[in-house]
């Protein structure tokens, strides 16, 4: 089988390589999956660079999220052969993968692979952050990197709950699509002053910030909170730490907290977890929900896929098939 691996951490285009490997054999409690599609997430890039919360055990494959079909059942036949499943695992950029049967989620055959392969991390993060934020109908949330796959999903989920959404972009041509999805306010931070626009349009600032960027933009988003507001950091696309204004934190009684999907899911009861999965999959199956794909590449063309992923102003996910 083909797999993309790295023997040392570094820039993906420099350290990743394609190789042939033997077909993996599952342990008794595992199933073998023939992987059909994987999307490229920021966490994949950070993992390869050695900058993620999970340290790679080298040599390692890249990727955390995928969709595929069960090729070999576990000993209890928990998941039947031929079942289409989504899953997260370390190293999904392979043609075949063996993982514990209880960790996969069956999905309808009618769900296209390009949607199914991104049906876990971003949608579940959006669902989880809205749930954990305590946002209510009429509240304002500010979403940095609004044109990302996550941003588009959280806009649609929050809008369905009557939450008002402001979001940041870096290109004017991204404004119309986000407004169409339901964003109430879209700010191009390359041309507009974020805090000034937020205060003018909301009157007092936003209740919560969902920050995927960190760095200077994260600091500006923090300053856009109203008194008693909080910033939920879940990404670091800028690859820079956020400079924090201590006085602002003190006098406006602001809070900064981290959100990691893995930790949030682990804290749920089995009943709560199943409800979350069912809700998210049901949401993604709705015809009016939009999940954009910017390009699809065969696994062996991963270098071209990475180049497309890095393209400024990209509108949609890059998929490895």
TrEMBL record:
<keyword id="KW-0560">Oxidoreductase</keyword>
<dbReference type="Pfam" id="PF00107">
    <property type="entry name" value="ADH_zinc_N"/>
</dbReference>
<feature type="domain" description="Enoyl reductase (ER)">
    <location>
        <begin position="11"/>
        <end position="320"/>
    </location>
</feature>
<dbReference type="GO" id="GO:0016651">
    <property type="term" value="F:oxidoreductase activity, acting on NAD(P)H"/>
</dbReference>
<dbReference type="InterPro" id="IPR013154">
    <property type="entry name" value="ADH-like_N"/>
</dbReference>
<dbReference type="GO" id="GO:0070402">
    <property type="term" value="F:NADPH binding"/>
</dbReference>
<dbReference type="InterPro" id="IPR020843">
    <property type="entry name" value="ER"/>
</dbReference>
<protein>
    <submittedName>
        <fullName>Zinc-binding dehydrogenase</fullName>
    </submittedName>
</protein>
<dbReference type="Pfam" id="PF08240">
    <property type="entry name" value="ADH_N"/>
</dbReference>
<keyword id="KW-0521">NADP</keyword>
<dbReference type="InterPro" id="IPR013149">
    <property type="entry name" value="ADH-like_C"/>
</dbReference>
């Amino acid at each position: 089988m083909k797999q993309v691996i790295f023997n040392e951490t570094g820039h993906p285009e420099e350290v990743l390589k394609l190789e042939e490997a033997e077909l993996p054999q599952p342990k008794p409690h595992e199933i073998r999956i023939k992987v059909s599609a994987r999307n490229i997430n920021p966490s994949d890039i950070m993992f390869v660079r050695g900058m993620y919360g999970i340290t790679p055990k080298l040599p390692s494959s890249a990727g955390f999220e995928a969709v595929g079909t069960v090729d070999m059942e576990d000993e209890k036949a928990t998941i039947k052969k031929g079942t289409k499943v989504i899953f997260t695992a370390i190293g999904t950029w392979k043609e075949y993968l063996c993982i514990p049967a209880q960790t996969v989620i069956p999905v309808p055959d009618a769900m296209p692979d390009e949607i199914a392969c991104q049906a876990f991390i971003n949608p579940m993060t959006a669902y989880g952050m809205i749930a954990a934020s305590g946002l209510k109908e009429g509240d304002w949330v500010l979403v940095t990197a609004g044109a990302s796959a996550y941003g588009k999903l959280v806009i649609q989920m929050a809008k369905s709950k009557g939450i008002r959404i402001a979001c940041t972009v870096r290109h004017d041509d991204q404004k119309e699509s986000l407004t169409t999805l339901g964003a109430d306010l879209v700010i191009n931070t390359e041309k507009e002053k974020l805090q000034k626009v937020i205060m003018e349009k909301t009157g007092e600032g936003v209740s919560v910030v969902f920050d995927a960027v960190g760095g200077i933009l994260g600091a500006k988003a923090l300053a856009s909170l109203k008194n008693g507001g909080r910033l939920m950091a879940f990404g670091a696309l800028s690859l820079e730490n956020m400079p924090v204004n201590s006085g602002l934190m003190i006098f406006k009684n602001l809070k900064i907290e981290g959100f990691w999907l893995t930790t949030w899911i682990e804290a749920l009861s089995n009943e709560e977890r199943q409800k979350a999965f069912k809700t998210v999959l049901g949401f993604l199956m709705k015809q009016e929900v939009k999940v954009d794909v910017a390009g699809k590449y065969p696994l062996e063309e991963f270098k071209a896929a990475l180049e497309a992923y890095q393209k400024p102003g990209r509108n949609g996910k890059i998929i490895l098939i």
